[in-house]
Each structure stands twice: as structure tokens, then as C-alpha cells.
Design a protein that fits this description.
72 residues; mainly alpha
């Protein structure tokens, strides 16, 4: 299962990270990926897995909505 992000959701996620001063290096460490992979995921060239999204939500309190996931 994968999280699919549109361009709007990409911008929402990037904005959230910037506003909360969460660095790509921190994301990479949390999901055990290198920075290049995280950059690809953040810019829509690759997708976050659901497990990665859950881990980032737990670690940084990033709302699921920032990843384009509707929890209602």
C-alpha cells in the first residue's frame, strides 16, 4: 500500500516541514533512508509508503492530511 501525493499535497507537506523546521536529514533518519531518497519522495518523484507516513506522523506529529490521506 502506498501514499499517493498530488502536487498540491506535495506543497502542503513541504510547507508543513518548513513551518515546523523539520529538515530532510531528520526525515531521512526517522525512516532510515538517505537524503536523496527523501528528496525524491518530497518532490513527488517517489512515494512514501504507508509505514513511512505512520512513522513520520508518530515522530514529528505531521498530520496525515499533509500526505494527502483522508482520515475521516
Amino acid at each position: 500500500m502506498r501514499c499517493v501525493c498530488s502536487e498540491d499535497q506535495e506543497l502542503r507537506l513541504l510547507g508543513y516541514l518548513k513551518t515546523h523546521r523539520i529538515l530532510q536529514e531528520q526525515i531521512a533518519e526517522a525512516i532510515n533512508r538517505n537524503i536523496t531518497t527523501v528528496n525524491r519522495k518530497l518532490h513527488g518523484r517517489s512515494q512514501f509508503t504507508i509505514e513511512e507516513v505512520k512513522k513520520l506522523h508518530r515522530t514529528f506529529k505531521i498530520p496525515y492530511g499533509a500526505f494527502g490521506i483522508d482520515t475521516t
